[in-house]
């Protein structure tokens, strides 16, 4: 029988235990170990059963137990002390408060998913966990972020594996009353709502859930309200559930509804409205259109409003995989914007923002990433390599500029240490190195001995083995009720064996089954009598992706082979809870994507924070952080003839590394049983990688490199009651109109003969036709570098040229010089670009006039 309705009948807490309510209501507990321990001690079995869920626990614990705790002075004292600590954490000035008054007072951060705690399954993978870590680190640093997302009634799916190895999905429905969140209400008690006008006179209504992530408020929009007809209630049913129109509705709600919700929240909470808007991937891009609508309502034109919105918007792109980018059929988008959805905003202007109207683009397609880039003056990829790949991938939006100059920078992802460092690692740091912040200690001294570090790693491995056995037993019981599990289930994995982990979503480019390329070779590694290896694998395939499910099935089938079973397991239902035990427990964390399709990858970072070593293709973060002592690089077979050959070569390289380097080093034990070389690598990893991989480093970079400049741009462009925006829009129109006339008429050079020497000076005079523009509208530059094949300039440098004269009716004359600093091939050209003080980059308009 299925219940038609469900809710939680909550226990009434005795007054002295009121601090527990306060502690449970703020998700700070998800990264505060003492608070987690306090809740665990209330009812340890229930705690495990509910999966580390303080709020859920308080809903279910029996009154008798609470009465007992209320009489326990020590317990009450702990609760009060932790409550006071939380209040102090929420109130005290932090890093951001030292930045000064130019720092924005409120920053809105939009994401389609947020991975904060196991009890709140509102994420599917890396993008969501990153968003959760961003909020947590922002809270720790005091960054005044407001998070904005959707509340999915069933979140992402739960994964089970059938006896045939096939992925089964289920969608447990969440009970909002059982979660630490409350409806945002006006002072008179009415629930705050956002309403979006839809085609055919319909309307989509959403309420706003408010969550506290430490100091950071998080707003989640929810369409499951009585005001909506049945088919619209389900708009927020699942994360990435439907395609086409369902997805579009979710994104309209996230962007437009989200922007409205932040405004409502700011007014109710009495905080300044955000001036900087950060969108985590393109899904929330419509937020820029809602802000344009507001400005148009205040009397600006679309073009003027666009300049204002661009100034304060930061766009982070997360994937170079085309399938990862949202694209809609343009007529569908047009239908939704030919309504009262955004009064004063023309559907044609909206369509133009998302149009792939560049070389290689598709007609009638609306591309959310392209719109995201056009609505944001500042954009970034999420690792150095991914920044470079994105500049190439989106280069067509800035025609005429080499990819190095495409205005997309990069900020490498980070992970939130307090969430992702195992309590045992933190405890060892606290007891031997003076702080439980394991990212801030010197792990290279003998304050911690090799034996202690090795014992720690053994405990983490044993903890993983126990967790894996428990999960596999529970999964068996679920699939085969009443049938006892086979005996080998009790002996899955060994706490002594070199453990390699691999867990991630299962899109093709991540190559879940690369390890199965040569099954005999893998079998030999797993069953080696002296130096055995064991593999722990997990991952969810998108429900619509049967190819991915087939890969999971291949792995499960292999893991059931009597010869290797017990040495390789596939753990169902990869989630935050599993990850927190899995990463620390693996000696080696494996990642073998098709380079360069992994934008960053964060699981390897979380492993490194716990002293696990990485074995990875040089992609994403690993391509910038790998050195000789923190793990191993699998060489990419870029020159392989086809995909199959590439897989074979890269898999062979991986087997070789495991067999000839990794296993020998792991099993090379001293008299004390400790592998000294391995432990040295662990120390090096903890000491050098963990500070750099921290989400605090990442959030500081976002603040310093993107939020502060965006806030300055926003201040500049809104100044004089938007007169700067009006002038800029008019200037942009004038420059675009005049540009076809702008060209470099000719270039003279002097000072050197045909074969110059290092140290000599090249002088250049350029004659430039500016048409209707003046010298103040442009910059003229000498660009030099090494000519590559096809005469492209590689390694290009830019030297500004000075205006010498600009006589009426004649070309403007620009001059400059440069000294040859190295020998070899040399090439140069002269170009004209539009220049405006309100631009973040000369490439912004994508306009350039090149000599020749
Ligand atoms: C970190 C994490 C991910 C993302 O890992 P990648 O290496 O970026 O693929 C996915 N799922 C969970 C549960 C995670 O904790």
Automatic annotation (TrEMBL):
Keywords: Allosteric enzyme, Carbohydrate metabolism, Glycosyltransferase, Pyridoxal phosphate, Transferase. The keyword Transferase applies. Residues 13-120 form the DUF3417 domain. PROSITE patterns: PHOSPHORYLASE. InterPro entries: Agluc_phsphrylas, Glyco_trans_35, Glycogen/Maltodextrin_Phosph, Glycogen_phosphorylase_DUF3417, Pyridoxal_P_attach_site. It catalyses: [(1->4)-alpha-D-glucosyl](n) + phosphate = [(1->4)-alpha-D-glucosyl](n-1) + alpha-D-glucose 1-phosphate. Its cofactor is pyridoxal 5'-phosphate. Its EC number is 2.4.1.1. It comes from the Bacteria. Belongs to the glycogen phosphorylase family. PANTHER family: GLYCOGEN PHOSPHORYLASE. Phosphorylase is an important allosteric enzyme in carbohydrate metabolism. Enzymes from different sources differ in their regulatory mechanisms and in their natural substrates. However, all known phosphorylases share catalytic and structural properties. This is glycogen phosphorylase.
């Amino acid at each position: 029988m299925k219940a038609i309705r469900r809710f939680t009948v909550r226990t009434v807490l005795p007054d002295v235990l009121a601090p527990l309510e306060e502690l449970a209501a703020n998700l700070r507990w998800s990264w505060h170990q003492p608070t987690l321990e306090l809740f665990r001690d209330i009812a340890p079995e229930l705690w495990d059963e509910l999966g580390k869920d303080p709020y859920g626990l308080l809903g279910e614990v029996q009154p008798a137990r609470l009465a007992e705790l209320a009489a326990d002075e020590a317990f009450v004292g702990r609760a009060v002390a932790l409550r006071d600590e939380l209040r102090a954490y929420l109130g005290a000035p932090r890093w951001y408060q030292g930045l000064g008054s130019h720092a924005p007072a409120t920053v809105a951060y939009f994401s389609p998913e947020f991975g904060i705690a196991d009890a709140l399954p509102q994420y599917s993978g890396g993008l969501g966990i990153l968003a959760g870590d961003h909020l947590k680190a922002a809270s720790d640093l005091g960054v005044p972020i407001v998070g904005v997302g959707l509340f999915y009634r069933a979140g992402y799916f739960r994964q089970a594996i059938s006896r045939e190895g096939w992925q089964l999905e289920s969608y447990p429905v969440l009970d909002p009353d059982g979660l630490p969140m409350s409806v945002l209400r006006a002072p008179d008690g009415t629930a705050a709502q956002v309403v979006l006008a839809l085609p055919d006179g319909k309307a989509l209504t959403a309420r706003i859930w408010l969550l506290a992530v430490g100091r950071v408020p998080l707003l989640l929009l929810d369409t499951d309200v009585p005001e909506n007809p049945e088919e619209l209630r389900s708009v927020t049913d699942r994360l990435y559930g439907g395609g086409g129109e369902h997805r579009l509705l979710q994104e309209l709600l996230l962007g437009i509804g989200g922007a409205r919700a932040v405004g409502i929240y700011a007014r109710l909470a009495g905080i300044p409205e955000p001036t900087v808007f950060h969108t985590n991937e393109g899904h929330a891009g419509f937020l820029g259109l809602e802000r344009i609508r507001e400005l148009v309502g205040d009397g600006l034109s679309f073009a003027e409003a666009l300049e204002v919105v661009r100034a304060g918007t930061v766009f982070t792109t997360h994937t170079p995989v085309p399938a990862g980018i949202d694209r809609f059929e343009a007529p569908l988008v047009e239908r939704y914007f030919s309504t009262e959805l955004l009064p004063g905003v023309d559907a044609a202007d909206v369509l133009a923002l998302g149009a792939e109207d560049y070389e290689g683009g598709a007609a009638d397609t609306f591309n959310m990433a392209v719109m995201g880039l056009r609505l944001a003056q500042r954009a970034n990829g999420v690792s150095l390599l991914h920044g470079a790949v994105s500049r190439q991938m989106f280069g067509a939006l800035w025609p005429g500029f080499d990819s190095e100059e495409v205005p997309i920078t990069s900020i490498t992802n980070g992970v939130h240490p307090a969430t992702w460092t195992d309590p045992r690692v933190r405890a060892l740091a606290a007891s031997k190195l003076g702080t439980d912040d394991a990212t801030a200690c010197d792990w290279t001294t003998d304050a911690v001995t090799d034996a202690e570090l090795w014992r720690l790693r053994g405990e983490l491995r044993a903890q993983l083995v126990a967790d894996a056995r428990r999960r596999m037993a529970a999964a068996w019981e679920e699939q085969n009720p009443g049938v006892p599990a086979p005996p080998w289930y009790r002996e899955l994995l060994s706490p002594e064996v070199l453990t390699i982990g691999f867990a991630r979503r299962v899109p093709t480019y991540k190559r879940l089954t690369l390890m199965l390329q040569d099954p005999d070779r893998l079998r030999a590694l797993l069953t080696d009598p002296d130096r055995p290896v064991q593999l722990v694998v997990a991952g969810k395939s998108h429900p619509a992706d049967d190819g991915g499910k087939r890969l999971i099935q291949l792995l499960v089938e292999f893991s059931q082979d009597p010869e290797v079973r017990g040495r390789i397991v596939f753990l169902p239902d990869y989630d935050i809870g599993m990850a927190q035990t899995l990463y620390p427990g693996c000696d080696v964390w494996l990642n073998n994507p098709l380079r360069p399709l992994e934008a960053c990858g964060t699981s390897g970072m979380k492993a490194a924070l716990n002293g696990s070593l990485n074995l990875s293709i040089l992609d994403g973060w690993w391509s910038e952080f790998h050195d000789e002592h923190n793990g191993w690089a699998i060489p990419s077979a870029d020159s392989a003839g086809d995909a199959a050959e590439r897989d074979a070569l890269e898999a062979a390289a991986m087997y070789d590394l495991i067999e000839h380097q990794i296993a020998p080093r792991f099993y090379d034990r001293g008299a004390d049983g400790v592998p000294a070389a391995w432990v040295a690598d662990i120390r090096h990893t903890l000491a050098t990688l963990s500070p750099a991989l921290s989400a605090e480093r990442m959030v500081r970079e976002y603040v310093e490199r993107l939020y502060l400049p965006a806030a300055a741009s926003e201040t500049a462009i809104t100044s004089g009651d938007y007169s700067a925006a009006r002038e800029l829009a008019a200037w942009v129109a004038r420059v675009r109109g005049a540009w076809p006339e702008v060209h470099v008429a000719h270039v003279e050079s002097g000072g050197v003969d045909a074969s110059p020497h290092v140290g000599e000076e090249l002088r250049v005079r350029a004659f430039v036709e500016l048409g209707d523009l003046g010298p103040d509208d442009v910059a003229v530059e000498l660009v030099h570098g090494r000519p590559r094949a096809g005469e492209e300039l590689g390694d290009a440098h830019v030297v500004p040229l000075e205006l010498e004269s600009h006589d009426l009716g004649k070309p403007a004359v620009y001059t400059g010089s440069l000294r040859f600093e190295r020998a070899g091939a040399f090439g140069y050209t002269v170009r004209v670009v539009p220049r405006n003080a309100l631009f973040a980059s000369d490439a912004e308009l994508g306009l350039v006039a090149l000599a020749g």
